[in-house]
Amino acid sequence: MSKKRRFKGGEIPTASMADIAFLLLIFFLVTTTIDMDKGLGIILPAEGEELEIKKTNILNCLINSQGNVLLGGDPVALKDVNKEIRRRLAENNKLIISVKAHEKTKYGDYVSLIDQLKRANATRISIADAE
Questions:
Q1: pLDDT digits (tens, 9 = 90+) for 8-39
Q2: CA–CA separation, 81 vs 119, rounded Å?
């Protein structure tokens, strides 16, 4: 005589599920890294700091609302700014580029101009106020 044992399905203890879910949530919050936008990466001078600069060492760079660029009064295509700035920096290594944008200039055009200046290894960039 054998007794048949009827196997009841095992139950999963759910009492600690909330604890486990909470610990997993904490773990992923702590270990996840969030990429932050870096922006333009420009070092700004201290407030009130002013330096006297010779006019020959300043190159005015103007960009209008259509994205047209003037370098020292000469029109230059946005894609050619890099070459022109490299040429002028070779002539004068103390050159400071003063960038002034029209208030309706597209942000993308402005960033493209700053990128072109950085590609030309222009380390002295002055951002002028739009008046």
A1: 767 777 778 888 899 999 999 999 887 777 66
A2: 10
Contacts of residues 41-48 at CB distance under 8 Å and 24 or more positions apart, as own/partner, are 42/114, 42/125, 42/127
- Determine the structural domain holding residue 106 and report its residue range: 55-127
With H, G, I as helix, E, B as strand and everything else as coil, classify residue 114.
helix
CA distances from 111 to 17, 107, 118 (A): 50, 6, 10
Does residue 61 fall inside a structural domain?
Answer: yes
121: domain CATH number?
Answer: 3.30.420.270
The string over 65-97, giving b where at least 16 C-beta atoms fall within 10 Å of a residue's C-beta and e elsewhere, is eebebebeeeebeeeebbebbeebbeeeeebbb
Q: Read off the pTM.
A: 0.60
pLDDT in tens, 43-58: 666 777 676 777 788 8
